[in-house]
Design a protein that fits this description.
The strands form two sheets. Strands 1, 2, 3, 4, 5, 6, 7 and 13 form an eight-stranded mixed β-sheet that branches. With 265 residues, the chain is α/β, with parallel strands linked by helices. Helices cover 24% and strands 25% of the residues.
């Protein structure tokens, strides 16, 4: 993967208290605290910037009992991104914590796997277990964005720009995708929910929210094949990301982690 290197940031905007048994199909015999972090990501190059996912709102956080730390859209300004000027938003999938706030990006084209849209509006949404992870207004909003010509659909891998590509990995949802980015330390893989935690992938124990468990297990293989090493894979919800990667500036510690540099471990 050769291109001008991008700078990549993870921005944490919320958290949720949890236990180990909450995060693995089949639970965990060594149950204990295992909180979950919520991120959006910024991919910044010399010619083009991508925002990866758009988080959720304070209202959704209150209803779903999440700890809302800051607005993810406004947090982008901490790394020099003006949301109102963003032209490209990659939506890894349409779960509530990845597509809320889409309306705060008035100039953006949204990049999405077509299978995800079909899933979010299709027959499986009659099951509460599966629709629980979606906010109907977000899904309707994406339908409206499509009618406005602002959604670009993909049916498989695609290069969005030199050094930035998307790769489907269905399982957690039917149209989940992850993002590969060329950086100064090699290809960084933003796994999103292909692996919520490092431990999901390392132990091959998928997260509890699943559309297809076999697809989730295959997703771990896809991540490993897409990255130069396990240290180049960034899970979608692991608080360890903020510990392993430095902040770009001291005042952003605990808020922003820079991912185009090697982890501390």
């Amino acid at each position: 993967m050769s291109a001008s290197p991008y700078t990549v940031y993870a921005l944490q905007y919320a958290s949720r208290a949890g236990r180990r048994a909450d995060n693995f199909i089949g639970g965990d015999p060594h149950d204990g605290p295992m909180p979950l972090a919520y991120y959006v990501w910024a991919v910044m190059g010399p010619e083009r910037t991508f925002v990866v996912d758009t988080g959720f709102t304070a209202e959704v956080a209150a209803r779903r009992q999440r700890d809302f730390l800051r607005c993810p859209v406004e947090a982008l300004r901490l790394v020099g991104i003006a949301p109102e000027e963003v032209t490209d938003v990659i939506l890894t999938h349409l779960h509530y914590d990845h597509v809320g706030n889409f309306d705060r990006f008035p100039k953006a084209t949204f990049h999405l796997q077509e299978a995800e849209m079909h899933y979010a509006v299709g027959r499986y949404m009659r099951y509460q277990k599966l629709r629980h992870s979606y906010e109907v207004e977000d899904v309707v909003g994406m339908v409206r964005a499509n009618y406005a010509g602002r959604v670009r659909f993909y049916n498989g891998p695609a290069e969005l720009a030199p050094g930035v590509d998307i790769q489907p990995a269905p399982g957690h949802s039917a149209g989940l995708q992850f993002v590969r980015v060329a950086t100064r330390r090699g290809t960084v893989v933003l796994a999103s929910d292909v692996s919520h935690f490092y431990e999901n992938m390392e132990r091959e124990k998928p997260y509890v929210t699943a559309f297809h468990v076999g697809g989730m297990l295959e997703g771990f293989d896809l991540l490993r094949a897409a990255a130069p090493s396990p240290d180049h894979i960034i899970p979608g919800h692991d608080p360890l990301v903020m510990q392993l990667y430095p902040a770009p500036r001291p005042e952003l510690a605990g808020i922003v982690a820079q991912l185009d540099v090697p982890p501390r471990r």
